[in-house]
Specification:
By secondary structure, this protein is mainly beta. It has four helices and 48 strands.
Length: 656
């Protein structure tokens, strides 16, 4: 009676009339889970719902359900005919699906589901096949899916899943196929996926994944299809990818990968499709890629590759599609005419590279990058201008243009102007076409030619006399410590502005005013030079004008005479009024080895000093013995140094 009541209660729950049976077809929990799926996904609106909840119809006859024993083992709401149509399930997936522990296959693809993947699906430990692709699911991938130890196929592609790829997926030891493409997954690729040594297909493209590609993925020795395209992955290509010996397709396009192409990729002997285009890879194309004898498609375009494409690539007879565009390649080999598609546009190629590949069915070679080698050249009127570019090809035609207009007669790869003049100034470019390679014009970087006249420096002294370069200018006799100033008019009598980088003055001569930075044609500037001798005798120096223009420096030699005669003020008074308080000898400091002796009228010495300096040593009318000397006339003997002739004279001492 209890069994009857339980079965009758279930029939009421599902809205059916049931006949009494002591042997239920499926366990109650499985039946309840199916009813929950029906109710939460708008079962009445399904495209096909044959026998679902129909009285008297066993679960095994319900559309899309497979029963083995008394357990539901398969749910398939993704019919093969018509394909990609689903069954119009609309709504969320119920958590009760986690009670279908006998389930081996769950296929709900191509339906209009919403919400997230129930974490309870992690209870389906017998699940072998899980397909929730193209179902509009949101939320994160439950880490509990890592508990599905028997799962071989995981298809969650074409949803709106977000968050990171759970590291727990690395526990799906039996997995052969994982497809998470076309979602909104972020974060890095778990290195734990490298544990899935049975994996044949790993597709993670069209997400927002970042970080580098884990080198651990190089241990997936059974992998045949590997796609990480359309993400934001960065860093270098791991060399361990060269260990994927079974790989047929490698797609890493549209990322931010940098560094060079590893030579180890040449070990992928089964590779047929290599797509690493639209990254930031640099360096050259490795010749080792020529070992990929089964390669059909080579896509390395839209990177920053340089150098030549090795001839070994062209020897791969299976190639049908080669994309090398938008790099900085300087040479490509001659490919077989059996090649279907070849794109070498937007590189640094010239006609010698392009001519041999004419005849390939779909051959894209235009445009090419600007040929480097432009510059800015500044010449003076009369100088020779020559510019040349070396461009390979057997049928080239050349045309130089100045400011965008063809220059008559300039139809070789070299342009020469024997003596430039002002009208020759402008921007020059060389344009090259080729009769074998139509619809392509190569263009060089522009060379800008500026033409200037010759500035001429002139100099006049204040008396109006012209002074040529190298002239000698004399200053008047000047006492040491005193100064003399002369003025110079610096002019530009040439045909171009004189640019002055600096004006230097050396020796005991100094520039008094701020020097000009330029002097226009027929203009002048005045310089004031001050002569301050630091020693007696002839003093020399130079005034030099350094120009930024293509003219030599302009120099004037400066000569002055330093005068330092001694003058003895021969009156000493004892009145401390600041006048004649001591024996003042002007310029005595220039002769530190001096000696002065003072005698009275009878020739008796009263004062003797060496290194007399008007300061620490000075005669104030006091004798060497400290006595005040009487008023009167005294006589001195002064030796400037040991070699000079002595100076003599008298001193009048007056007391008030």
């Amino acid at each position: 009676m209890k069994i009857f009541r339980a079965l009758f209660g279930f029939c009421l729950l599902v809205g059916l009339t049931c006949s009494y049976s002591t042997k239920a077809q499926v366990v109650l929990s499985d039946s309840l889970a199916l009813v929950a799926l029906y109710n939460s996904t708008n079962g009445p609106g399904w495209t096909t719902r044959t026998n679902w909840l129909v009285p008297g119809r066993p679960v095994s006859t319900w559309y899309g359900i497979t029963v083995t024993g008394n357990r539901v083992t398969q749910i398939n709401m993704n019919p093969a005919n018509p394909p990609f149509s689903g069954n119009n399930l609309i709504g969320t997936l119920p958590a009760q699906l986690g009670s279908l522990t006998g389930l081996t296959s769950l296929d709900l693809a191509y339906n209009r589901l919403s919400g997230s993947i129930p974490t309870s699906l992690g209870n389906l430990v017998n699940l072998v096949f899980l397909n929730l692709s193209n179902a509009q699911l949101t939320g994160t991938i439950p880490s509990q899916l890592g508990n599905l130890s028997n799962l071989t196929v995981l298809l969650l592609n074409n949803n709106q899943l977000s968050g990171q790829i759970p590291t727990q997926l690395g526990s799906l030891a039996k997995a052969t196929q994982i497809n998470l493409t076309f979602n909104r997954l972020t974060g890095s690729i778990p290195a734990q996926l490298g544990n899935l040594t049975n994996l044949v297909q790993l597709l993670l493209d069209n997400n927002q994944l970042t970080g580098s590609i884990p080198g651990a993925l190089g241990s997936l020795s059974k992998l045949t299809s590997f796609s990480l395209s359309e993400n934001q992955l960065s860093g270098n290509l791991p060399t361990q990818l060269g260990n994927l010996s079974a790989l047929v397709e490698l797609n890493l396009s549209n990322n931010l990968l940098t560094g060079g192409i590893p030579t180890q990729l040449g070990s992928l002997s089964n590779l047929q499709f290599l797509r690493i285009n639209r990254n930031q890879l640099n360096g050259s194309v490795p010749k080792e890629l020529g070992n990929l004898t089964k390669l059909r498609e080579l896509l390395v375009g839209n990177n920053q590759l340089t150098g030549i494409v090795p001839n070994e690539i062209a020897t791969i007879s299976s190639l049908t599609n080669v994309q090398l565009q938008s790099n900085f390649l300087t040479a490509v080999p001659t490919f077989s005419k059996s090649l279907v598609n070849l794109n070498v546009s937007t590189n640094n190629l010239t006609f010698e590279d392009l001519e041999p590949n004419m005849g390939i069915a779909n051959y894209i070679y235009s445009p090419q990058r600007i040929i480097p080698g432009g510059e800015t050249r500044n010449l003076i009127v009369g100088e020779t201008f020559t510019k040349s570019f070396s461009v390979g090809g057997t049928a080239n035609q050349y045309q130089w243009r100045k400011n965008g207009v063809n220059r008559a007669g300039a139809t070789s790869n070299t342009l020469t102007i024997a003596a430039v003049d002002f009208p020759d100034a402008g921007t020059y470019e060389l344009f090259i076409t080729n009769s074998i390679v139509p619809n392509l014009t190569l263009q060089t970087e522009p060379t800008t030619l500026t033409v200037t006249g010759v500035p001429i420096i002139g100099a006049k002294t204040e008396d109006g006399i012209s002074q040529p370069n190298g002239a000698t200018i004399n200053f008047e006799l000047t006492e040491v410590g005193d100064q003399r100033i002369r003025q110079f008019e610096i002019s530009n009598t040439g045909s171009a502005t004189l640019s002055i980088s600096s004006i230097t003055v050396t020796g005991d001569f100094n520039l008094e005013n701020t020097p000009p930075t330029q002097i226009d044609v027929n203009e002048s500037e005045t310089l004031s030079i001050r002569f301050v001798p630091t020693e007696i005798g002839s003093r020399t120096g130079t005034l030099t004008i350094f120009s930024n223009s293509n003219i030599p420096v302009f120099t004037l030699n400066l000569i002055g005479e330093g005068n330092a005669e001694l003058e003895i003020y021969n009156v000493v008074t004892t009145n401390p009024n600041g006048k004649h308080d001591f024996l003042n000898i002007r310029n005595i400091w220039l002769y530190p080895q001096n000696r002065i002796q003072i005698f009275d009228r009878w020739g008796n010495p009263v004062y003797d000093a060496e290194g007399y300096d008007n300061n620490t040593k000075k005669f104030t009318g006091i004798s060497d013995k400290g006595k005040e000397l009487p008023e009167g006339t005294y006589y001195y003997v002064l030796n400037k140094d040991q070699a000079s002739e002595a100076l003599t004279g008298f001193i009048f001492l007056r007391r008030n």
